[in-house]
Structure formats: C-alpha cells, structure tokens
Amino acid sequence: xxxxxxASFAAALLLAGCATPPPVADRPGQGRVEPPSLGFFSxxxxxxxxxxxxxxxxxxxxxxxxxxxxxxxxxxxxxxxAELFDGQGQTVGRHGANFSFxxxxxxxxxxxxxxxxxxxxxxxxxxxxxxxxxxxxxxFAGVSYVQRLNTRGGMPPAxxxxxxxxxxxxxxFSADFVFYRPRG
Length: 184
Hints:
10% helix; eight-stranded antiparallel barrel; globular; mainly beta
C-alpha cells in the first residue's frame, strides 16, 4: 500500500512538471518572462508560435478631446502618453500616438489593435492585443504582438458638454505590456 501511494505521488509530480511551461528568456542573463494568465474565452490571446520576450509597466495619461457626435458631445480618444518601466523600475522607453512604443535603445514598434477584452472595472481601459511592426535593432527587434493587461484608470467621464467642446482631458492610467516574438 505504501509503495502504491509513493508511485501515485511520483506520477503526479512528474505530470505536474510536464505541465509547467519552460521559462522564456527575455535576453540572455535577464531572467524569464511568463505568459499572462488569461481566461478561456479571452480574445487577446497571442497566436500559437509566439512567446513572451519582454514585459514592461506603463504609467501616464490617456488623452481625450470633447467632440460633437450627432446631437451630443462625448470624450473621444486621441492618444496615450506614458513612460515604460522595466522590472527594476528604470525608465526604458515611451508609449505614444498610434499605439507606438520607443525603447531607449532606439528600437520602435507601431501597433494595430486586433482584439480587446473588457477590463475588470468600468474606469479601467480595455485589455488589448496589438499586432506590431518593428523598426530598428534592440529590445523591440522581432516583436510581432503586444498585449496591454492589468489596466488601472484611463477612462474618461461618460460625457462632456458643448461648453467643453474641443477641450483636452488627460486621464491617469497604468498598465502592463507584454511583447511577443515568434518562437525560433
């Protein structure tokens, strides 16, 4: 009986070890980047054949402009302005217009929204999947997808008034960005 229990425990341990994904290197010597845990029905999953290569935190603002839409006025998204931080809290880049990312090493990305998931609260930006075009050599070289996750803040009030027409509104936000490269 004792041997059967030991064999069951060993089998469970072996299976658990097989189910754990291998660590993904950020860059040689810089640790690993774990893929985010997303729900089964998430629309922002990265296509097969890609692995997380870099994770950065963002803090900044989302900029909106009060515009007439039909007979009403509403805050319309213009662009983000945020700094990007590495795991040690060091500023390593910027996130800006047209879902752009620029690393301090000169490498850049331009993103296009391909999918979104709602955030956990109404005042938080939706989570996004961006397809990316990369430019230059550096940390962003080879990146083909970016996920925006763990958003906090960033959403404007429900509406604006005619008296606020063409005014800009800057709403604080923070988020995590995970950058993916093709496996290879």
